[in-house]
Write a structure and sequence with these properties.
The chain is mainly alpha-helical and 396 residues long. 72% of the residues lie in helices and 0% in strands. The chain is built from 20 helices and no strands. The radius of gyration is 24 Å and the shape is globular.
């Protein structure tokens, strides 16, 4: 793909689809029209140059392509096409006019309707807002591509057939929808954090800010925003898969950390704790000059009240190793049923290495390698494995 078009696609795909859904009231029409507009950009921009407003060009071109197609279909007495044209005629301007009129936020609430299963909500949001391909989403969910394609078709069909409205719900409906929306925003962030699409982190943070403006009295909204900011503040230091303890803290974004810490204090002051607030508090402790590991263990104990999962227990064990030693932590880790999770084996390898059990550590790293999701994680695991091999040679 042309570099300029690729940049525009990554930056503007979600916005363009969201605007077109508002205009035509149909997800399929919007998505296909935006794809056609980017295909046209691949032909036109190398010849005519990049337009002053790439987003405006894409949205305008997509709208025209959709109208042309719908007019052809409406002339054949296609009632669906006629309805979409009627929606277009009554819609407002094609482009957003400010942060209050956030089409992407409306789209995410549509995708997160309670009648849709949670995996379908996440997959559809990643597809429409993130611009991820079906194959990329399938890999993220560890399912075959045809299975994911069917999920997406069914989710869009359910939205269409159930006439799920494209809008932010009424205030009375927001609490019911909020939990799902927060989960999807965080999963978008994580998809950018562990995968090659780093701009998804920025989009998730932008959505978090929009939610905070919409729901200023919800502490979990501010907890999630704080969590994303504090994790994202370390993005430069983490490049190449560098572990937290080995990161150069001078590379951390001090402005982002300050904002995240302030949001943690603001949310916790409401005395309505939740899982995102506790996770944000853990990351706020890490963002200090040195990490108070005893406090981190205590916070993980609180997090387990809200989210009693093996993954949380694994992260708690990492903190326990810093307080009570590797042997105590290894006992906790070995009790967890996480054999298909690469971090389980990576953590075991680290603890075994500290205990001088190098041969067992190598076995654990070899188990982790094929399970790692990102190139950076695989490279880090391979580097640690090579280091252990060198240590064994030197000992021999």
């Amino acid at each position: 793909m042309n570099v300029d078009v690729e940049h525009a696609f990554r930056a503007e795909h979600g916005r363009a689809v969201a605007v077109l859904v508002r205009v035509f009231g149909d997800i399929d029409i919007a998505e296909e029209a935006v794809q056609e507009a980017f295909a046209a950009a691949l032909e036109r921009w190398p010849v005519d140059g990049v337009p002053p407003s790439p987003a405006g060009w894409i949205i305008t071109t997509a709208r025209r392509r959709a109208i042309d197609r719908l007019r052809r279909e409406a002339s054949r007495d296609d009632r669906h096409a006629q309805a979409a044209l009627l929606a277009e005629q009554s819609a407002g301007p094609a482009e957003e006019v400010g942060p209050v009129q956030d089409d992407r936020l409306r789209l995410i609430f549509t995708c997160c309707h309670p009648s849709l299963a949670v995996p379908a909500r996440v997959a559809l949001t990643l597809r429409l807002l993130g611009g991820l391909s079906t194959a990329e989403i399938a890999r993220a969910f560890l399912v075959p591509e045809p299975t994911m394609a069917q999920r997406l078709v069914r989710a869009k069909g359910k939205i269409r057939d159930a006439k799920i409205p494209y809008r932010v719900p009424r205030e009375a409906d927001l609490p019911e929808r909020l939990k799902g929306v927060l989960a999807v925003v965080y999963l978008i962030f994580n998809q950018g954090y562990v995968g090659p699409r780093g701009e998804l982190c920025e989009e998730a943070i932008r959505l978090g800010r929009a939610l905070a403006a919409l729901m200023p009295d919800e502490p979990e909204v501010f907890g999630l925003l704080a969590l994303m900011l504090l994790v994202h503040s370390r993005r430069t230091a983490r490049e190449g898969g560098v572990l937290l303890r080995d990161q150069d803290r001078g590379l951390w974004d001090a402005t982002m950390i300050a904002e995240g810490q302030a949001l943690v204090r603001r949310s916790l002051a409401r005395n309505q704790p939740g899982p995102y607030q506790v996770q944000a508090a853990i990351n706020a402790v890490h963002s200090e000059g040195t990490t108070d590991w005893a406090q981190v263990v205590a916070l993980y104990d609180q997090l387990l009240v809200f989210t009693p999962t093996p993954v949380v227990e694994l992260h708690r064990a990492v903190a326990v190793a810093e307080v009570g030693g590797a042997a105590e932590a290894l006992v906790l880790v070995d009790e967890l049923d996480l054999r298909t999770y690469h971090l389980f084996h990576a953590v075991r390898a680290e603890l075994l290495t500290r205990l001088g059990r190098v041969a067992e550590a190598r076995v654990a790293l070899n188990a982790a390698l094929p399970l790692a999701e990102s190139d950076a994680d695989r490279a880090l695991l391979a580097e640690r494995l090579a280091a252990l091999a060198n240590d064994s040679i030197e000992e021999g």
